[in-house]
Amino acid sequence: MGRFVIRRILGMVIVMFAVSVLTFLIFNVIPNGDPADRMAGKNSTPAQIEAINREWGFDKPIYTQYATTMEKVATGDLISYANQTNVIEEIKRGIPRTFALAIGAALLWFAMGTALGLYTAMRAGRWTDTLVTVLALIGVSMPVFWLGALASYYLGFKAGLFPNGGYSEIGEAGLWEWVKHMILPWTVLATLFIGVYSRVLRSNVLDTINDDYVRTARAKGLTERRVMIHHVLRNSLIPIVTLWGLDFGAVLGGGAILTETVFDLQGVGQYFAESIGQLDVPPVLAVTLFGAFFIVLLNTLVDIVYAALDPRIRLS
Amino acid sequence: MSIADSSVSSDLSPVADGGQVEAAPDPGISPGALALRRLRRKRAALAFGALFVVLVGLALAAPLWADIAGTTPAKNHLSDTIVVDGEEQQVVTFDGVPIAPTWQKKFFLGADTNGRDVAVRLLYGARNSLFIGVVAALITTFLAVLLGTLAGYFRGWVDAVISRSLDVLWAFPVLLLGVALGVALALGGLKIGPLEIQGDSKWIPTLIIGVVGVVYLARPIRGQVLSLREKEFVEAARAQGAGPIRIMIGELLPNLASTLLVFFPLLVANSILLEAALSFLGAGVQPPEPSWGTMLAEGITLLATSPHLTIVPGLMLVLTVLSLNIFGDGVRDALDPRAKVRLEHS
Amino acid sequence: MLCLTFACAATLGLAACGGDDDDGGTSTGGAAATDDGAGKTGGTISTAYTSFPDYLDPALSYTQEGWQSMWTVYTPLLTYKHAEGAEGATVVPGLAEAMPEISDDGKTYRLKLRQGLKYSDGKAVKASDFEHTIKRVLNLESGGSSFYQVIEGADKYLEDGRARADISGIVTDDATGDITITLTEADGRFPYILAMNFAGIVPSDTPFENQTKNPPVGVGPYKFENVRINRGYDLVKVANFNVPDQAQAKLDTIKVEVVKNRRRQTQDTIQNKLDYMNDPPAPDQLRDVRAEYTDERYKEFVTNSTYYYFLNNDIAPFNKPEARQAVNIAVDKRSLARLFGGLLEPGCNFLPPGMKGYEKIDPCPWGDPTAAPDIEKAKQLVQDSGTAGQTVTVFGNDEPESKSLAEYLSDVLNDIGYKARPRIIEASVYFTTIGNQKTRAHAGFANWFQDFPHPGNFMFLVDGDSIQATNNQNFGNVNNPEVNRILDEANKNADIDEVADDYARADRLIVEGAHVVPYGHRKLTVFYSDRVDFENCTSWHPVYNLDFTQLCLK
Description:
heterotrimer, A: mainly alpha, 15 helices, 0% strand, C: alpha+beta, 16 helices
């Protein structure tokens, strides 16, 4: 088991490295304008541009630039091209917001998805089953920013039920304000996943419900409820939990970018969206690494958990 | 995006079937015909499949509607007036507020802030969005089959290289990668050897979406190939002296067909959603070409005065994606009611 | 200055002559002019900008958001009157005792620093601080440094490269407070240049570095506090500010926050959660805000700005005058006004109405700006020019208005016989891209907001002498010899009234030559919560838009 974990962690490091190289290349190889030009501002002179090139090292070969940039990321000294702010500081500021969004939404979709999945499994074949399934599918078919914009405008501004977007710090305005600001974003983001989860759970439940050992348990006289919870649910949940781990990683990684933008939460994803619009490479690079880190971390955790549960996988 | 639906063996069947019980399969019928028969019984899936076809038809009919409305998707009518219900109204008021749906030939679904006919743009936008969705899905399928088959069949270092590369791509947050590529390429265009694509061509988002989708499909394909290659018919073919290419194309590919058929509608649906997201962030289709994503992005800024600009393209997108999802469900059930096409994580 | 968002509009002017009905009313009589003190003092308000000012360093800041604050924190030797309307565009003594004595040849300016001036931290102000201030502008390669290169010795200073080197054209005497500035040539714009915020006096120990994180002290009614880069800052009233003839602040504190989402700013202001909104309301809120709050909490006014399309006079097809004329005829200014949601005053001139030297060109040679264009005539001209069918790329940036404007022009060009396509460039590199000759842009979006109320500041955009290979601001390479000659002469004269006619003539020549396609002048807005005393205490300044010192609560 130990060797398995070590191998996986090593894999993680290598993947992160590859991701960083790839991101760096995308922006430095694809022609897209001169960052020195951009930084120099409106009335720049060739001398100014040369000075910027020297200061930032744009005139050095690309692998040197890469090394310098990565060093800056590691030491937390990365400066944005666009407005000379410290990128790592900005990301640190955005992290609690992105986490708040991701964790809240993830818990919500897990709970709702499981509940709906169970409900539809128990009512399989009836019209409630179809209705819920179709609703769930509709949720999956919607662009999250469309739903978010409509919700924010109609429920937020028009109906006055929710604030006009933005993020409220718990420390500043208290817990209730924070929750009020997060309810719509949580719900909107969760809608993307509830449908999928409810159907996965439903099918898993329907499969296990007729398994032999369940029938044995019933034959032994256990109540239906105990059978459901102890046997059926537990076995149905395992694939759900692994799926959840991966999706949670994806959301942290960058899936939240649209929700953050629509609700103006100023999280890490929104920081990315704003920076990319200005072709500001340092934040883009840093956020991509941040996102990749979480995706890979959660993937690895899921793998490890799976391997812990199923010895066959460790040996593959 | 979660293509996890594919790991579901959904059961729309009990309802859609109209309660019919599956009879014991007749050994004389081919699997394909059997699948088709099952599909025919799924009313919901068929209905939505038909809806999708209708939507495609509407998109193809775009030039026809443009003629009826007497305009083109890029033509502005900012200072024009039009008679609605006997009253003369401005297409775009001085405040910048465009006219709401008139339900007439001109400006059937209203106008946008540039004074353009929304219905015409919607249909042309549908063309672009559907084109991107389908072609991207084809690109994904092609690349995924290629990479997955090579990796699964040859194993060894070929597999190692391909799988590690896929790992790296998998780690890349999909949207971040798509946006990064979209923005970078929109500026300078793409030049690979003799091939040159303009920055504002719709091939750029198509290629990007096609490429980022590969990771989701390549792994399941690889998994399937890994197990298929151990099967007897492959052994037999090898014993007969068939080379790897012949085996891959002749034996493996046909067996992958059902997996691909299941995945394809979902891929198209996800590609359409991804295009909308990219265009919303400015990294997808470039102006003045319409697409559902760009129309949504423009519409959202005008929710207060002109909700039709947001609701109309949004509804059309949702209907299209929903049809694909439901139809795709039906296809999966028909091909193998108990199928569990799993996602590989490792 | 160039504008990426309306919010960065540097300076504006009210339509000096009673405006048209469309601009939401002429200025209300505000007793807010200087320090008459109508309206109560004290209190705090919150305001929002869509983006953090480019710099909080007076030597570097070159955007409207920046200047609004700079003006209240740093005072140059000369400054503008705290008044509304044309009066506010008058240059008056700031930290100098009196207006400068200008020699007969226009090259020497003599000023004297007021006695007993103190910075907000109590330090005394010295005459040599002026030279240090100018050195910073030059040494830090500020966007404004070109304005000060007319000072003798400035070029040598830049060549020398050392921060503490001397500028021979500035001589100061700390004991007497005398300041003598010598120019390399007479320049009528120099008093305005002295009044620009770049010359806001800072202490001689201010480092030669961007001080945004920790802005230096200045002499002004407000000072900076609580600066959080990219988030916001506070302007806090300075207790010991007492420069004669300069307005005292009314409010104790002005909290400035960055709220990137304009829709949120509008909604918050409507709901009184925000006290002042600098940007125009979000496009879909504009109609309702106008209808509900005009003259109560909301007002629009025409700025000294021009929005135009540049046409490349050097390369086909627009090197042919007929082609350029066709474009001028075909553009429908009523349509363009709609693209701005009505925040555009259509016009035919290149100079804006509030500017000295503006003479309305009536009738407009290219058709009445308020009537439908003669498309047939435009098509004919295109045919005549022999350029029909050519491919034209229309440049715009990715800000929503600019994008629509580029799309609009493409559409019009396609109508009259070209094959046009818009090409959208990312906003922060837009002007350097079209300012690079290599780009060979055929046509595109451009705008200009005055840096100071002198027509020369506009005409340099169409002056043949301003053409450069990179960082070109004469995007269309306009090179009309007669115009060049007029501008050469007029720019030297320090007496605007004498040369106003010359500028008017140059304006007319530019329009008649169809060198550019001007279509109007931007209207900007102010929108307050109902805590703010709109009647008495809100004052629109022609150069800075909002005069923070005049704001007060009810």
